Amino acid sequence: MTTSTTSDGRSATGEADDGQLLLPELVAHLRENRTALRREWANRITDADLLTSMTPQEVFSEATSVYDNYVGVLETGSVEALQDYARDLSERIIPRGVETEEVVGIVLLLRDVLARSLFEKYHQDFGLLNRVLDAYEPAANRIANTVAVSFVQERERVIRQQQEAIRELSTPVLQVRERLLILPIIGVLDGQRAQQLTEQLLGGIRRHRAKVVVVDVTGVPEVDAAVANHLVQTVDASRLMGAGVIITGLSSEIAQTLVRIGVDLTKMNTVGDLQGGIEEAERLLGFKVTRPTDDLR
Amino acid sequence: MTFAEPDPPQEPLRVSILSQGSYLIASIHTALNDSQLTRFQRDLIDRIGRDRARGVVIDVAALDVLDSFGSRTLRDIARAGRLRGAVTVIVGIAPDLALSMVRLGLDLDLPTALDLEEGLAHLAAATGAGVVGGAAAAGTVPR
């Protein structure tokens, strides 16, 4: 879209019936009333109890940037700069708990504030007002859309990132003695986590030169056939790498499930609880834990 | 004095068999095709007798695939080696290889160890010799 020079005289007479010509006039109007309009907008945001997690000063300064970007989009028709800004803004406000409806709400408020100002300016000439709105509405909708989509995308990105972090944290590989690793698993083991568990386990064996790994599933509420078979495969793969796996903490439900669905666990070394598993592992590795007796102390 | 024919230059060294005390260390450097595997099997079993080896470490760290023929060949080497008096241990199976073998249902049914050092320690324990390096509590993990 070209930015033709504003010509007040021509538009005021109502000659221009083209959005291309009206938009520049609109932009000039919004620039002129920048201070009043953004103040009005910030007030409306506060009145509507939006962005309550931000201070009024912050709201005002963000409102100013959004306002300028908004006008910029109206002027150039390119939403790229606004997209970048919206992403950046989202990045800042998402950690503070700003919700999607708040973001959509403030953008719609701005749309409303600006539209009202247009009503006020053109209320004498109804035909011109209509044409101005014809030019304004599609652009405003596009802007609202862009901001909302950017926000949601950013939020989804954050969620994905956090999911990854949780997944990463959810299968820690811990070395408790030389050549002895433990892998406590907490939470539901779905296919993807089971896959990740395998990677962590096999990678951990190599990295720590482990000989025995205790996999503790006390914190796993349920296991299905696919995950159980995956577990068996992981144990076999570990053995190929020269490490034995001890499974501990199989709950009575899981144990019964495994028997019922017929997963062959005969090759697996299982011990009742984590303590027992570590003791067994120490025995395999030749460690002997002794408590100093009273007379030696 | 005669010199052995040098290897043709287009044929890089794929397998090396080194003697270390009473053990043989066979390292596979690149993927082997079936005929190369068969030749490797023959060479290694020959060497077991010639060197009077009591243990063999086969290092497969460089392999990222092992098909059913490959794993059967390794198993056959181990069994034939056993008949000639040597214990075999496979070392260096990479995580991805281990997983793909399990997924393909290839069971080596052989002792395995993490790396060369562990493999030698396993042989020391299995043949009753003193531990050559490696952890004292050596040996592969009981099943």
UniProtKB/TrEMBL annotation, chain B:
Provenance organism: uncultured Mycobacteriales bacterium
Pfam families from the UniProt entry: STAS (PF01740)
Family matches, as PROSITE patterns: STAS
Transmembrane segments: none
Annotated protein name in UniProt: RsbS, negative regulator of sigma-B
Gene3D superfamilies (alphabetical): STAS domain
Occurrences of domain STAS (ranges): 13-123
SUPFAM superfamilies: SpoIIaa-like (SSF52091)
InterPro entries registered for this protein in UniProt: Bact_StressResp_Reg, STAS_dom, STAS_dom_sf
